[in-house]
Amino acid sequence: MPFRTALSGLNAASADLRVTGNNVANTGTTGFKESRAEFADIFALSYSGISNTATGTGARLAAVTQQFSQGNIETTGNNMDLGLSGQGFFVLNDGGSRVYSRAGGFQVNRDGYVVNAQGARLQAYPPQDGNPGVFSSGQLGDLRLSSGESSPRATSEVRASLNLAADAEDQSAVPFDPQDPSSFNFSTSLSLYDSLGQSQTASLFFRNEGSLNWAAHLAIDGTEVGSPVALEFDSAGRLVEPTAPASFGPFTPPSGGAQMDIEFDFSEITQFGGTSNVNSLSQDGYTTGRLTSIDVDDKGIVLARYTNGQAQALGQVAVANFSNPQGLQQLGDNAWAETFAAGEPIMGKAGEGDFGTIQSGGLEASNVDISEQLVNLITAQRNFQANAQVISTADAITQTIINIR
To answer: Domains along the chain?
Structure first.
């Protein structure tokens, strides 16, 4: 019996060494979670009357449990590297099977899908059509990055904030000519964009037409557009008319783009003393843009940024959690599969509820404490040696009994 008891101890110590060795081997593995060998004693009950005289018969490996403590987030500088800080797992499509991982080293394959080193596709919620910034949490699909150009947007509104000098000369007797500086008091210009993304130079001209009245004229590439807009101020220099955005009239851009009828918001124009000057001049159009970068924010929203200054949401990275993560089945390659013991996956989004946040440009390191593992190696080695000594002692006793004559 001592031989079998000691043999079970040797097996237990050997299992402890294997688990510890696996932890040490994966110290540098991204997203790796260390394991712990848990043992139970083997006890055969034997009763003699009411006195329990049974002794233990050894040890057995009861379980190898995973420890899902947080690993350090190490900065990489690669925007496609994602580190989860807090609870949750990345959801991956591995050839039609759903698997889960904490390793966020992703890249884009030839077809534009975001995949890990094994080719499993990262899952995300798609953006809702016509509702930017909102994602369909009821749908889950492969995250695919678009490498095409960003479509242009024609200018539909211009906001002008400027001051017109109160002591400007009355120009009402002089016919307006955009080419004659003496026919207007002040001018400024900005770029507008048509439906093709072509830039048009728009010039705004302001003429004092007596006392508190001014007229604004618009010229596109040197040609006047439509009719002037009358501006009326009160005695405090505040704009009285128009009270709503005004239009100079429709015009067709020379590039062949669609007809444009731009609204001009003059509500922030004043007539104060001093000089005429522009505080701000903005418009809502933009030209065609080329993809420059892909960014992921802490909520997992994937944004494509373009040279025209626009950003397009391509999806929101899905995050899953389980009521019992230790019940997940290890598959290797930093992946786990759901099991009955782990419970149903709880799907969500980063930063919401109990789900952790996502750090772009960083990877979660292994949570293995190498110092602790080295101590475990020493302990397991001594346990092995002690059990081997039990076998040696039992053998010596057996030899003594055999040698009795």
So the answer is: 2-69+367-402 (no CATH), 91-148+298-364 (no CATH), 157-283 (2.60.98.20)
